[in-house]
Amino acid sequence: MLDDRSRSLLKSLVEHYIADGQPVGSRALSKFSGLDLSPATIRNVMADLEDAGFVASPHTSAGRVPTSRGYRLFVDSLLTVQPLEARQMGEMEEALQGRPVNQIIASASQLLSGLTHFAGVVIAPRRAPSRIRQIEFLTLSEKRILLIIVTTDGDVQNRVLTTEKSYSSAELVSAANYLNQNFAGMDFEQIRQRLSVEIMQLREDIKPLMTQALEAGDAALSENSAPYVISGERNLLDVEELSSNMKRLRDLFDLFEQRSSLIRLLDVSNRATGVKIYIGGESGIATLDECSVVAAPYVVDGQVLGSVGVIGPTRMAYERVIPIVDITAKLLSSALSQQNS
Description:
With 341 residues, the chain is α+β, with helices and mostly antiparallel strands. The protein has 3 domains: 4-78, Orthogonal Bundle (Arc Repressor Mutant, subunit A), CATH 1.10.10.10; 86-126 and 226-340, 2-Layer Sandwich (Beta-Lactamase), CATH 3.30.450; 132-222, Enolase-like, domain 1 (2-Layer Sandwich). It is built from 13 helices and 10 strands. Strand 5 (144-151) and strand 6 form a beta hairpin.
């Protein structure tokens, strides 16, 4: 446990570093901490904090910067959150009212990015599993087949299958007819269960096609089961800690595009009450080791439907970002509840 003096100095160091991004020296701390301590005493305390893993010394500077562990202690026990002004909350509420659901979700993402100047993410309400209206196979080349899936809600998904053998047009029509006659109106999980029983009755040469089509179709529709909206990714180009490393920045944008890892991370926050904060490596996603994610679930009729979040550098103004995420989640819950009423 840190004593009060160490905690006060750590708090001052984190706040000062967040404000200007420069390593903080002992003289600056003696000036900004408000404590009647000499620079020599502060240096000793800083050395102890460094030994404990709360701060680190960059090679090019005599000052110190907070580590992920230092940020964690700061967020958990030293931070004073700034409530949002009533005027700003009113503007946020107005931006989410009286719109279709997809526009409400997009507006929430834009609010998060616009107010924090980082990336704003919203995991939209998960839709019920899509049910199949029709499946069709079209020959593209000798061993490449286009799988076309039409769902009962009118969604159309196309996937290219690469097969080990070539199929005639008659075989593809026969396979599609079998699926349409036996499985129309079912979702892919129901089809999977039925087909696992009935597949033994199929011709040996058609079994691989059925299995491949099932896996590809399930994957295609699952991608849309949790729509993912992100705004303000380009804001991160202005963050020196991230933009100074082009590989890290490319990896970060790849993460946004691939989205599955980020969706899983935000899904975990659905089980939290209130705001959940991942600092550095706490996310378990290597690409986010230099980032923090502040997320919160939103609820309609007592059920968690999704989550909102902000992605930015570990050096972020947590006292401001946390209430923005918290209020956005609450306002989104309210706006979607009105849609259901």
